[in-house]
Amino acid sequence: MVAELNELRGKIDEIDQTLLQLLAKRLSLVAEVGKVKHQHGIPIYAPEREANMLAARQKEGEQLGLSPELVEDVLRRLMRESYIHENDSGFKKTFSGKGVIVIVGGNGLMGRLFSRLFKLSGYEVRVLGSRNWDEAPKLVADADAVIVTVPINKTLDIIKQLPELPKDCVLTDFTSIKQLPLQAMLDKHQGPVVGLHPMFGPDVPNLAKQLVVYCAGRYPEKYQWLLDQIAIWGANVYAISSADHDKNMSFIQALRHFTSFAYGANLAREGANIDQLIALSSPIYRLELMMVGRLFAQDPQLYADIIMSSDQNIDLIKRYHACLGEMIKLLEKQDKSHFIENFNQISDWFGDYADRFMVESRGLLKFANDNRV
User: Fold this and answer.
1) Is residue 37 within 8 Å of 82, Cβ to Cβ?
2) Where would I find the Prephenate/arogenate dehydrogenase domain in this sequence (predicted)?
């Protein structure tokens, strides 16, 4: 039996080695694709091409007895790696002139990420920070874009302290709140202004499928090249008003981060055994625990600034607290009928999104389960 098993495993190893050779060949072709895209200014992420390719391979896989889920899992992982290889080839520069980019706070993680992307696209990148602030007038004298990426609590002051910029220089920021910084930039600079918010952390390998939100400020025709550049890097560029942005960020960031903070605080106070929680967790709870733990592996000042950035956030969290109190009363009364009634009302409010989220979450749950030790 052992000999027969070893023989079969040997054949599997041979196939795996062939697969590795094919993967290397595929990635080398991807690098060539990246060069062509770079020459012609084609974004690294092409949603229609990806969707058509997945559908075609799934259909072919079914004819070979392979499940569509397996084909999709393998190809999506390959495509994620492919975007990294395409990224190494550089990108077409959308700006027609010299392209001088000054990143205020460029030594930070997000600043370094965008500095690398601009350099890959042929721009001249200059970093402006506290150590060389006395050189600010010289550094921005011929700038085509000045990007402010500093902590939230310093953003407004930094914008006010900027020297005079060239009239056609684009002034923008990466702050996760938009109304106040956008207004500050409009007051400071009479040229093109746009507010940007990259909806991802600085640890992403590339911008493929990432989201960058923008809030219009002044002279959109003069900052369009910057939005086009971001799109070429593979990101989805989404327009929204600064007021709507901040309202939605109260839910997406402030409330979510606060609930993670509060849940982590409660686990610590209850003395929960994390090792046992992990050992006993279902995939969905493991994901939830991972997201809570992820928060506490990062900069507390950043999350304090996000949560406390506006009275609107505090009011929302207070309303959430009141809602929790109402739901607790249902538990105290053992009122299952009203619990179910509330449950169904909320389910109706989610509508088709509930089923959509059920389907989309399955992939995440499979990933969490695959990584279980």
Assistant:
1) no
2) 99-361
Neighbours of 239 (CB within 10 A): 12
User: Burial, 66: exposed, middle or buried (Cβ in 10 Å; 0-12, 13-18, 19+)?
Assistant: middle
**Six token digits for residue 293:** 């733990």
Which tokens is 19 given?
């697969």
Starting at the edge strand that comes first in sequence, how are the strands of the sheet with 236-239 ordered?
A: 124-128, 100-104, 145-148, 170-173, 193-198, 211-218, 236-239
Structure tokens at 85: 């290889």
Domain assignment of residue 365, yes or no = no
Whether residues 137 and 217 fall in one domain: yes
Q: Look at strands 100-104 and 236-239 and give their pairing.
A: unpaired
Helices 152-161, 300-307: inter-axial angle, 10-degree rounding: 80
User: What pLDDT does residue 372 have?
Assistant: 67
Does 227 reside within a domain? yes
Determine the 3-state secondary structure of 168 from DSSP: coil
Q: How confident is the model at residue 361 (pLDDT cuts 50, 70, 90)?
A: confident
Residue 293: is its pLDDT beyond 70?
Answer: yes
Do 157 and 211 sit in the same domain of this protein?
A: yes
User: Residue 46: which region, alpha, beta or left (left: phi > 0; alpha: psi -120 to 50)?
Assistant: beta
